[in-house]
Amino acid sequence: MSTAATAITYKIPKRRHPVVQFMMHQPLGAAGLVVIIAMGICAAFAQWVAPYDPLTVDYAAQLARPSAEHWLGTDSFGRDVASRVIYGARTALAIGFIASFLGCTAGAVIGVASAYFGGKTDLIIQGVMDVLLSFPIIVLAITVVAVLGSHVVLGVDINLIIAIAVPMLPRVERVVRASALAIREMPYIDAARAAGYSHTRIIFRHILPNVVAPYLILLTAFMAQAILAEASLSFLGLGVTEPTPSWGLMLSGAAADFYQQAPWMIVFPGIAISLAVFAFNLFGDSLRDWLDPKIKL
Question: Does the global pTM surpass 0.85?
């Protein structure tokens, strides 16, 4: 009696793309990402998306209600509110991204250096960070922009970006330093030192790549705070100035005088700010859950 060998085949499950996995496991984060992408597209192609030039003044259409001609109405100068909200996304995202990138990157580098070298270097750096942390974010931003003033280069206020980036630096530094302290004690770091590698090589080749996850999470989270800080400073007259479209600037000035007669001048910029901050917070929280191995387990 012969027995026929049966071949057993195992089907290896198809590995999904990380973006697809993220969208499946983090639907709220995916929704936030969709809103962010939509805002980014509107900001990048504002000249084609916006129905009107945001700087065009039309006194015949002052304080016009939302209609088919002006989707979100007009302001006290007859400028189209929808166009200014769309162009305001460009201002908010550009300043927010540059400021959060500079603040988070500088904080990450300082945090890694402080953890790696330790001793007096760590003591001095942590003392400076303690001083910066003693100020609320918006108060420190107001102080920096008031001291530096305005310095516009290629249409971007460099000092405004610095004022928003500085308050982020100590907060990012603390988180990255905590991660770098744990990595510094790993055996492969001792092996790199024993092999005679320079401090620069150890930091950039072995420590920095291992703090990318918390860095990305903080970068995303602080984008929301940067957008809110830019809007707050512009509202107070310390940020973007007229006639540049800015969500915070749209809430100040004449909008406060006409809020009863033309509430759309305040409502729609406020919705834009809230939606952007909410989207980045959703995406940042979901990204943290996705990248944190402890939460995955």
Answer: no
